[in-house]
Amino acid sequence: MEPAISAVTGELVSRFVSFLTNKYHSSRAYSEEKQFEKLHQLLLRVRTVVEEADGRYITNSGMLAQLKMLADAMYQGYWTRDAFKYRSLEETPMEAEVSSSARLKRSRSVHEGSPRQSKARYLLELQGALERLENVVAHMTEFVVILGGCDRMMRRPYDAYLYIENLMFGRHTEKQELSNFLLQHNHLATAPAVLPIIGAFGVGKKTLVAHVCNDERVRSRFSVILYLGEADFLRIAEDASPVSENTLVVVDFVSDVDEKDWTKFYSAVARMDRGNKVVILSRHKKSERFGTVKPLFLNVLSYEEFSYLFKTLAFGSANQLEYPRLVRIADEFARELQSEEWSLVTANLLADVIRRDLDDYFWLCILSRLRRVVERNFSMYGEHPKLLLERGHDIAVMDFVLHPVRPLPVICSSKNDAPMKKELSKVTFKELLVDSGVRPKVEFGQLTWESRLPPYTSFDHIVSSCVQDMTGYAPLSRRKRGEVPL
To answer: Smallest Cα–Cα separation from 326: which of 361, 292, 353, 352?
Structure first.
C-alpha cells in the first residue's frame, strides 16, 4: 500500500512541478509578447508626433531639444524592435563567415554570446527602449499642445515625396534651426548674420540647405539665393563688388579660408545692408570663427538612425517582414558603414545596388566586398578609402567588382572643379559592379552616384584604362570552396 501511495504522490508532485514550469514559461512568453506590442504602439505614437513636427515651424529651443529626444528614442526603438523580432533566426554558414571576416569586433553584434546570453541581452535592450519611449511619451503632452499652435508648412505633392526622404535622412532639429536662422530678421542692419554649418565630407550639408531653401517662406524671404564655391568666393572678395539686398549667400569651403579674403567678402555682402545673410558649409571646425551666431554641427548619424535609413533605402517598396534574414544583414551593413563613418552617398549607392536583388547570398557578397575594399586600401595606401577619396587620391576597388579585374584606381573629380571630359564614355558604378561587359578598355568616366534630392549633386570619377591582365593583383587571402566569394 505504501509503495502505491508513494508512487501516486511522486506522480502528482511531478505533474504539479511540470504545470508550474509550463505556466511560468507561458506567462514569460506572454509577457515578452505584451512588451513587444507595447513597443510597437509607443513607436506609432512617437513617429506620428515627429512627422507632425517636421511639417511645422518650430522656433522654441526647448521644443527643438525635446524633438531631438523624441527622434533619438524613435530610432532606438525601431532598431530594438527588429533585433528582438529576428533574434531567433539561426545563423547560416555564409553569415558566420562574413561576420568573422570583419576587421574589428563590434561590441554590439547580433551574433555574440551564447543563445541564453543573447536572449538576455535582447530582453534588456527591449526593456531599455520601452523605458526610454515611455519617458518621452509621458512628457509629450505639453509638446503636442504647443506644436498645435505652430504654423504649418505649405507642402506640394513633390514636397510630400521629399518629406518621406527627409524622414529617413533625419536632421529634424537641424532643419528647424536652419529655417529659424533664415527667417529671423537681422538685429544689426550693417552686420549680415553668418551661420557656419560644419560637418564631415558627405554628411549632408548641401542637402539640408537645399531642402530648407525650398520652403515657401524662405524663398519669399530672399530675392536671390547664391551658391558659391571657393573660386566664386575669392572672385567676389577680390572684386569687392556689392551683393544685392535680401540675398542669401551659401558658400562651400573645401579648405580653410584666409582672414583677409573673408573680410573682403563679408564687406561686399554687408555693403547692401538690408536682410543679407550668409551660410557657410565647411568641413573645418575653424570656420566657426566667421559666424555671428552659434554654428550648426552635422554629426554622423547614430547607429540606430543609420540602420533605419539604410533599411528603408535597401528595401524600397518591398515589405521588410517578408525578408527577416535580409533585415539582419541590413543591420550589418549599417554597422559597417556607420562605425567606419562612410558617407551617406556610400549608403545610398550600396542600397541602390542590393535593392535590385533581394537575395541573402547577394547581399552577403556585397557586404564582404565592402570590407575587402577597406582592407585592400589599408594594405596598399595605409588609409581608409573614404579618407583617400576626400583628398582626391586613387583608391583600389577591384575587390568590389563582381568579376575579376586588375586594380581600378579611381581619381576623384568634382563636377565643379574638374568637369568630366565629354569624349569619355560613361558607366555607372552599379553597372560596373554587376556586369563586367560594360567596362570600356580605355579610360572612362564613372558616375558613382547622382542624388535624387536637391541640389541633385552628382559624384563623377575618372577610371584609368582597364585591361584583362591581373598584373600586380594579389588576393588578400585564400578561401575554401563553397565560402562567400571574397
So the answer is: 361
The residue with greater pLDDT, 205 or 471, is: 205
Average pLDDT over residues 14-37: 59
Largest Cα separation within the chain, whole Å, is: 114
3-state secondary structure of 297: strand
- The conformational region for residue 56 under phi > 0 = left, psi -120 to 50 = alpha, else beta, is beta
User: Whole-angstrom distance between the N-terminal and C-terminal Cα of the chain?
Assistant: 73
Q: 394 and 409 in contact (C-beta within 8 Å)?
A: yes
Helix pair angle (344-354, 324-339), 10° resolution: 160
pLDDT at res. 68:
93
Block residue for cell numbers 511522486: 10
CA distance 408 to 411: 9
C-alpha cell at 219: 524663398
Mind giving me the DSSP string for 11-60? HHHHHHHHHHHHHHHHHHHHHHHHHHHHHHHHHHHHHHHHHHHHTB----
Secondary structure of 208-233 in HEC code, one letter for each residue: HHHHHHCCHHHHHHCCEEEEECHHHH
* Continuous segment of H or E residues that includes residue 310: helix 303-315
> In the predicted model, is pLDDT for residue 5 greater than 90?
no
- pTM for this prediction: 0.75
Q: Which helix (H) or strand (E) holds 445?
A: strand 444-450
Domain 171-298 in CATH 3.40.50.300: yes
- Residues whose CB falls within 8 Å of the CB of residue 412, separated by 6 or more in sequence, listed in order: 389, 391, 392, 393, 461
- For residues 384 and 391, what is the distance between their CA atoms, to the nearest angstrom? 11
- For the chain, the domains span 20-147, 171-298, 384-486
Q: What Rg value do the Cα atoms of the chain yield, rounded?
A: 27
Sheet with 410-412, strands from edge to edge, namely 410-412, 458-463, 444-450, 426-428
Given the C-alpha cell 564614355, which residue does it identify? Answer: 425
